[in-house]
Amino acid sequence: MDKIVNKKALVDCVAEKLEISKKNAAVAVDTVFEEIANVLAEGGKADITGFGKFEVTERPARMGINPATKEKMPIPASKAPKFKASKSLKDAVK
Questions:
Q1: pLDDT of res. 1
Q2: Which of 20, 30, 55, 61 would give a disulfide with 45, using CB separation of 3.0 to 4.6 Å?
């Protein structure tokens, strides 16, 4: 059976392990996610030792093909978040 951890399950786990209310655990989880998003939005990197590194990559502009019409179309440059797992996380998954 596959185990899936969503935000609610993460909040429940944090609340149980830290013996705090689910409301406080939700605030803690939201704060972590918001801080990572804020750092990335400012062009920085979030390096969480033992877990991995979040950073922003830039995708250059390029020509693509509209699958419906087969016409070539320009795709503008964009930025995207990227995650690279740490060695210890990779080892834990093996």
A1: 58
A2: 55
Mean pLDDT split into 10-residue runs, the chain, 94 residues: 87 96 97 97 95 96 95 96 96 92
Say if residues 53 and 83 touch (Cβ distance below 8 Å).
Answer: yes
Note the pLDDT of residue 48.
96
**Inter-axis angle of helices 22-41 and 7-18, nearest 10:** 120
**Structure confidence at residue 89 (pLDDT):** 95
Residue ranges of the chain assigned to CATH 4.10.520.10: 45-89
Residue type, 19: E
Structure tokens at 66: 């509209």
Q: Alpha-carbon distance 10 to 25, whole Å?
A: 9
DSSP track, 32-52: HHHHHHHHHHTT--EEETTTE
Classify domain 45-89 at the CATH superfamily level: IHF-like DNA-binding proteins (4.10.520.10)
